Structure formats: C-alpha cells, structure tokens
Amino acid sequence: MATFAHRNRRSGRRSPLTSAALLLIGLLATGGAYAAFTATSSADAASQTQVTKLTEEGEKLFAANCASCHGLQAEGTEDAPTLIGVGAASVDFQVGTGRMPMAASGPQAEQKPVQFTEEQIAALATWVASLGPGPAIPDERYLQGDGDLAVGAELFRINCAMCHNVAGAGGALTQGKFAPGVVGVSAKHVYEAMITGPQNMPVFNDANISPEDKSAIITYLQYLETSTSPGGLELGSLGPVSEGLFIWIFALGGIVAITVWLTAKSN
C-alpha cells in the first residue's frame, strides 16, 4: 500500500479518495449555487407578481375614484392636471394626507381625513408610477429623525421659513392660498412634499437638497415638535403679528384700564 501511494505521488496522480472528495465538493458547490439562484429567482418572481397585482388594483381604484377629474389614463382634463410622470411619492402624499380626492374646487387642496387604506394608497401609487418615471416613495433610512439637527435648522430657515414660518407653524400666501404647518407631519410626507412640490411649494430634488440634508430638515421639524418654547407662551408661533396683537390688547389695554380706574378714583 505504501508502495502504491508512493508511486502515485511520483507519477503526479491523485488517489481515488482525493478525487472523490473533490467531486463531492464540486457537487455541493454547484447545488448550493443553483439553490441560491432558484431562491433569488423565486423571490423576484413573487415581487413582480405583487407589483402586478398592486398595479391592477390601483387601476381599478383610479377608474372608480379619480378618473372623472384626471381622465381614465391619468392624462388630465380641464378640471385636473395629468398624473403621468408625477411618481408614486406624489400620489402617496396627496392621497395619504387626504388632500385627494378634493371635496370641492378651491385655491388649493386642503388636508382632511384620509379616504383610503394604506394598501389602497400603495396600489394607486404603484399604478400611477407605472405610467411614467417620477419621484419614488422615500427610503426609510432618511425618515428616522437622526440627521444633523444644526444643519437641518439652517436649511429650513434658508429654504422653508419664508412660507412655513421659522417655527413651522405655516403662513398665509396670496389669493386665498397658504403654506400649511409642518410640525407634526409624518417624516414620509415631509420628504415627499420636498421632492414633489405640492400646491405652491417648489420642488427640492436631490440636486438642490441632498437626501441626507432632507433627513436633517426632518430631524429639525421633529425637534420643534418635541421641544418647549424657551420664551414661555408661544402664541401659536405665528411671529410678530400675534405677539404685537397680544401687547396691544392686554398690555396697553391694562394700562388704559388702570388709567380709567385712577381717574375715577380721584373724582
């Protein structure tokens, strides 16, 4: 036996046991790769099936609830704009905040109770997204409220405070329009508003404000929601108008009342 093994080593041939082991390893590796490929293919197929199902359901929901204004293929009408190319994020924001469907025409769509379930909103968004490329629903990693607070505060003051107020309380615009309050709004809807530009709001795409900076703005808004006012009574956080009105009514009113009382007492 030793002579046979020595002869194999000298001739450069593997022993039968080594060949069998290598064959077994090759078979196991091939089987594992095939199983992984099959599992991936099955997952992709299941995902595609889910997307197809959502798209079909979304088309039915759109035809029943939205087509009267936006057209059967979302091409738009005299009463409403086209939705081709607005993306899933726009649908998720408008429908998820109750702004759509609109109860009545007006200067702008106002927030109201949501009329669809989360599953129905996802179906509508999936179908509209299939009509043309547009902003997608944001990644969860940008919605955690763990961005740079100082950067978010600065970006909000530069880009948003002129309409939404530095405290995020909202403000009046022209012709009956307004910038809504943004404190207490979900992180997903804040992000979607930035990338879709609803109503009179400009679009802040990733070239204007990066996803990380959008996350920082969300962090600042969540800070405003949980922090207390260092100055005491906030007066609605509406700025100098409400504060000035408070002074006129209560402070000067108190001075006038005291003056009248002193005059009456002296008489």
TrEMBL record:
Species lineage: Bacteria, Bacillati, Actinomycetota, Actinomycetes, Micrococcales
InterPro entries recorded: bc1_cytC-su, Cyt_c-like_dom, Cyt_c-like_dom_sf, Cytochrome_c_Oxidase_Subunit
The protein's assembly and partners: The cytochrome bc1 complex is composed of a cytochrome b (QcrB), the Rieske iron-sulfur protein (QcrA) and a diheme cytochrome c (QcrC) subunit.
Organism: Homoserinibacter gongjuensis
Keywords: Cell membrane, Electron transport, Heme, Iron, Membrane, Metal-binding, Repeat, Respiratory chain, Signal, Translocase, Transmembrane, Transmembrane helix, Transport
EC number(s) from the headed UniProt entry: 7.1.1.8
PROSITE patterns cross-referenced by the UniProt entry: CYTC
Residue intervals of the Cytochrome c domain: 53-132, 147-225
Leader sequence segment: 1-35
Recorded catalytic activity of this chain's protein: a quinol + 2 Fe(III)-[cytochrome c](out) = a quinone + 2 Fe(II)-[cytochrome c](out) + 2 H(+)(out)
Membrane-spanning residues: 245-264
Protein name in UniProt: Cytochrome bc1 complex cytochrome c subunit
Topology of the protein relative to the lipid bilayer: Multi-pass membrane protein
Pfam families xrefs: Cytochrom_C, Cytochrome_CBB3
Compartments reported by the entry: Cell membrane
Top-rank taxon, per record: Bacteria
PANTHER family registered for this protein in UniProt: CBB3-TYPE CYTOCHROME C OXIDASE SUBUNIT FIXP (PTHR33751), CYTOCHROME BC1 COMPLEX CYTOCHROME C SUBUNIT (PTHR33751:SF13)
